[in-house]
Amino acid sequence: MVKTVDIAIVGGGMAGASLALLLQKFCPQLSVALLERQPLPLPTAGTAPQLPSFDTRATAVAAGSLQIFSELGLWPRLRDYCAPIERVQVSDRGRGLGAILEADPRKRASFAGMLGAVIENAALGPVLYDALAQTDAQLLAPAQVRAVTMESGGAQLSWRAEEGGSERTLQAGLLVVADGVDSPLCHQLNIGVQRVEYRQRALITTVGLQRDHGGVAYERFTERGPMALLPLPRRDGQHRVALVWTCADEEAEQIASLEAGAFVERLQRAFGWRAGRILRAGKVHSYPLSLSLAEEQWRRGLVLVGNCAHFLHPVAGQGFNLTLRDCHALALTLARGCAAGAPPGELDLLQEYGRERRLDQQLTIGFSDRVPSLFASGSLWARGLRQAGLLGLTLAPPLRAGFVGQAAGFGL
After folding, report:
1. CA 252 to CA 300: how far, in whole Å?
2. DSSP bridge pairs for 71
3. CA distance 40 to 137
4. Residue 18: which domain range?
5. Which residues cross the membrane (predicted)?
6. Do 110 and 203 belong to one domain?
7. Do 340 and 223 have their domain in common?
8. Is the pTM above the cut of 0.70?
9. Counts for the chain of helices (H) and strands (E), in that order
C-alpha cells in the first residue's frame, strides 16, 4: 500500500524539525511527513530536558533566528536554556586593534536589541520535538530511506523502519532532503557538490571561566586559525562558555589528545586573557572543516536544505542561521503557492524560493569562506587589510550597524 503526503522531509535534525514546524504553522493544510534514520524518543510534553553541566554542544542562534523561533511559540521554553549575546569582541591575536559589536541598548526588550543567543543542543532538540509532537506532522523514526524515484507528480520513497524490515512506500508532492554532508540521497539523485577542503579541524568543548562572561562572545583570530568563546548559561554555579578552536589537521590531533590540565594551559596561551582565567574544559570533540555547496538546491518536486545544501566554516556561526532562514522562506513561499492553488513541488514556485534566497546565501557563504584565510595569513598585505577592516568597524557607525544587522539575521 502506498501512503501519500504533500511534503516528505528526509532528515530529522535541527533543520528538518524546524522546517516541519514552520510548514505546520504557515501551511497547515499540507500534510507533512518527517523521516529520521535514528530512533527519536519524544519527550513528555512540558517536561524539562535533562542537561549535563559540562560536555554539551551548543548552537549560536542569531537574533533573526530567535524571531523565527518566537513565531513558532518556542521562545518561552528556549529562553531557560540559552545565554544572550549582547556584545561580540573581535580581535586579531598579537595586534592591538580590535572591534566591539554590540546590540542597541535601547532595544534590549526585543530580539532586534540583541545579537543572538547560544542555545544548548541538548535542550534545543527536545524543545523542537516536543512542539512537533503537538502538530499533525507524521514522524517516521527510525526510517531508513532506501531509494527515491522522481516522477512527474513528485517523489516516491522506499523506506524501512529497520534493517531487514519490510519495504514501505511513501509518495510525496515535494521531497525535502535535510540530511548531512555527503547525503546518500543527493548522490542517488546525481546532485553534484562543490567542495573546498580547508585542511583544518574544529575542536569543540565546554570551557569553565573564573569570571562571568557578561554576555560577551569572543572572536579571536590567530595566525593558526580563528578561535571563538560563546557564552553559555551558568550551570551548577559555574561560568561556562562554548569553545570553537580551529586548527590545522596535524596540530588539532595533537591538541585534542592532551590531558585536561595541559589542554587548558595550551588554550589559555593561544587565546590570551581577554575572557579571564580558564579553569577547566570538558571532553574535546574534533570535526573536519570544509565548504560544501550543492550544485542544485531545487528541482521540480525537490528541495535541499541544511548541511546537504551548504556546509560552512564555523568562524561566524552562520551555518544553522542560514539554514533556518532558508526554511522560513521556503515555508512562506509554499504558503503563497498553496493560497494560489499551486502544488508544493511546482518548479516555478521553487524557482521563486531560489531567487529569494540567492543574495543572502551568497553573502553569508562568501563571508564564512574568505574571512578565516584573511585572518590566518601572515602577509603584510593581509595584515593591513584586516586591520583596516577592524578600524572601519570601530570608527564607522553605519558600517558597524550594517555588519551587526547582517550577523544578527536582520540585514536582508
Report:
1. 42
2. none
3. 15
4. 2-42+133-192+295-371
5. none
6. yes
7. no
8. yes
9. 11, 20
